[in-house]
Amino acid sequence: MKQLLSIVVLACMMIVPSLGHGQDWSPKDSITLQIGFGAGGSTDIMGRLVAAKIEENTGWNIVVENKPGGGGIAMFSSLMRQKPDGLTLGLGVSMPIFLNLASRGDQIPFNIDTFDYLATIMRGEIAMVAKADAPYNTLEELIAYAKNQKGGIAVAFDAKPQQMVLEPVARDAEVKFKFVKHKSGAEQVQSILGGHVDVGCTAGEHVKYIESGDLKMIASMSKDRQACAPDAKTLIENGFELYLEPYFYIAAPKGLPENVKAALAKAFDEAINSDSVKQGLLNSMQATAHNLGPQGTHTMMSQGAVDIKALVEAATTQQQ
Amino acid sequence: MIDIHTILAGLADALSLYNLFFVWLGIIVGQLVGAIPGIGPVMAMAIAIPFTFTLNPLPAIGFLMGVSKGGLVGGAIPAILINTPGTPDAAATTLDGYPMTKNGKPEKATKMALYSSVTGDAFSDIILITVAPFIAVVALKMGPIEIFALMVFAFSIIAGLVGDSVAKGIASAGLGLLCATVGLDPENSSPRFIFGYFELYDGVPLVSMALGMLAVAEVLRRMAGIRGKIESAIVISKAQNKADRRVSFVEFWKCRYTILRGSVIGTILGAIPGLDSSAASFLSYATAKQASSDPESFGKGNIHGVAATESANSAVAGANLIPLLTLGIPGNLAAALIISALMIHGIQPGPLLFQEQGQLIYGLFGTLLMANILNLFSGLLGLRLWTKVIQAPESIIFPAALLLCMTGVYLATGGMFGVAVMFVFAFLGYLMSSYGYSVIVFVIAFFLGERFELSLSQSLNIIDGDLSILFSHPVALTLFAMAIISIFWFGLGVKCKGTSEDSQSS
Q1: Chosen from A55, A180, A198, A209 to mutate, greatest number of chain B CBs within 10 A
Q2: Are residues A166 and A56 in the same domain?
Q3: Using CB atoms within 10 A of its CB, is residue B17 exposed (0-12), middle (13-18) or buried (19+)?
Q4: Does residue A184 belong to any structural domain of this protein?
Q5: Is A302 an interface residue toward B (CB < 8 Å)?
Q6: Which of A201, A261, A296, B452 is the most exposed place for a label (fewest CB within 10 A)?
């Protein structure tokens, strides 16, 4: 009897997914989109924007839940235990996940392969910026300036990876950067404008100030130059093989059936590339929507984790 | 300079019925969520933002501002009536508001809270409208070192709240600071005291701590005191003197300096990004007590205590818009929500805002002033309702409040973890108040702790061992000096009081 049951169950398991194949999946119940950050932050606004658009496009019901804690670690730790039925998804940011996996991976219950990936919403553009009247315009000039300053220069940052990318720069150029931690990009802008620090590393917050002429970009810390300041060179162009690219991405517990994954990926892609979401992202984060798709997101996550791990290891060996 | 035509067009937008309707709706929602322990205006705003996409920018922002302003009024109501602040901002209002209720003057206390709240709010709105760009430039000069000095000064003033035993006060403050260090450290992001809970990476959730210590502990204490008899949560005697049910103009006028001081403190702290309204209300309370000719009556139902805290925490709301509109920097969480709402409507707060969106800005200014008036009248109506609700039997009120606290914390922290943390703090709060340790000092130390630590680490990095840098920060030096003076002052005051009590007892 028991054997029969297990055979039936096995058969069902094999048949059900293949039955589903080819036919469009639609959720039987509400989908919960968990956001790894608190209500009101940029990640939250982004998630709600995309969820509202999917509801409008597909008629599905999406409930947005905030699960803040540890830059998304708390949310992903509970998401991994959910059923992979496509009804529970998570929105997180890649950088803090990479950093935590690299620096204390043994304490974290998941890794990159614990999840299935559906989409990225956008890519944050990080830049080193200074006040418009600062006596330097490029990274070279900044380094020359820093050499003449007795105590070095004060550099604001709000996430550890920014510091880890700039530490090798200071080391190679033999200058001193005094790293001053801030809580957010907005607070960095405040410190830069108030003259309390010399430069800062902001993720998008700089765009409107560059347009208004209050800030200028010293270097782009992304892979490419940025639209708001096309003349500012990247770190790579300056001879430092370093860059940061935080992605905002959607993940689900591992083992989503193929048709569910395809239907969800399609729904997210349509929403992310819709005019209203694109416009909303542009307005609220000065960034363009950028969906890598399920495969692309997985590649980005795997590669990013390796890159950041190398960065962390380089930083720790340097300290010893 | 913006021409008068733009200003008038903006004000006309503000006065349209359509706009006023949404502002009023926001205020009603705000007062309601503010008065219900657990569900704060910030959460209501976060939930409401997607719904405002469909509105025009002015009614959308007006609605959100209404929720924020209404919440500040609403939060004081349960703080005064049942000693459980509806929002963390109202924590200080319990200090004198609840004793007034116990003295049989709940209506007087809530009305005073409403009047001083609206006055403080209107004061900071007028400052915002008239001299915002100037204040914003001054506030920018408050860098990490100045903020650190301000924190030290704030702690020294709070010494005045400690109560009779200095040792117990220091113990509560130390415990509050210790709890504030839970989570990632600001310097190297290494986790501290998390005991394997990733939920604690960002520190102890503020709502869990505040509601646990202040609201749930009180509810449990009151429920433990129920003796099988059906009693109202508060008893308002029928034969009550009419003068005890309202605030006369003379009484209001007597509080004018207290309210003005509260408004100024709230406006200054609100204009500096990163400091929240709880800090403002505690500072205002401490200075009002110090300035009073009768400091002994504070904490026993002095109407000045209510006026001081409510004027200060509401003044923060208007002043928060100063750095927001002029520099694009949000002062606190509510302001950050307003900024994201503005941005979604394609409006960039920041240096260019006044030129690009003059009509909208003056429309917003008009809306803010109208919101104050609507807040006053809705508040007066609402108070009647709340005082009726609160007269229901204790056995209904307190379990309901407990349930609402749990729901609110569950929503705000995204799960049962936050609720569990809330009960841990409720237990701690119960123990502390039973043994005479000040819960309020614990809470304020916790509130200030995070910013204190961050600004200390920032300052140390900027100074980098070279103390001569301090001399280029005259504001910070002045604040440090004021801190030393106030420790001396308050320390002396406590000592005198202590010896006089000793001599009385012996």
Answers
A1: A180
A2: no
A3: exposed
A4: yes
A5: no
A6: A296
Whether A187 is in a domain gets the answer yes
| CB < 8 Å to A279, chain B | 346
Name the residue range of residue A38's domain. Answer: 27-123+246-316
**Nearest CB to B199 within list A52, A69, A151:** A69
Here the contacts of A131-135 (C-beta below 8 Å, separation 24 or greater) are A131/A192, A131/A193, A131/A195, A131/A214, A131/A215, A131/A216, A132/A213, A132/A214, A132/A215, A132/A216, A134/A198, A134/A199, A134/A216
Task: Locate the chain B residue with the closest alpha carbon to A186.
Answer: B329
Q: Are residues A130 and A240 in the same domain?
A: yes
Give per-residue pLDDT as tens, B85-123: 888 788 889 889 999 988 888 889 999 999 999 999 999
Distance of CA B458 to the CA centre of its chain: 25
Instruction: Work out the mean pLDDT of chain B and round it to a whole number.
Output: 84
Residues of A within 8 A of B187 (CB-CB) are 181
pLDDT in tens, A169-225: 999 999 999 999 988 888 888 899 989 999 999 988 888 889 888 999 999 999 889
CA B39/CA B389 separation, integer angstroms: 18
> What is the number of structural domains in chain A?
2
**A7 CA to centre of own chain:** 44
Task: Tell me, yes or no, if B460 comes closer than 8 A to chain A by beta carbon.
Answer: no
Which residue from B minimizes the CA distance to A48?
B50
- Name the residue of chain A whose CA is nearest to B346's CA: A283
3-class DSSP state of A239? coil
The burial class, CB within 10 Å (0-12 / 13-18 / 19+), for B486 is buried
* Structure confidence at residue B481 (pLDDT): 93
Gap between the Cα atoms of A235 and A220, Å rounded? 6
> Do A81 and A180 lie in a common domain?
no
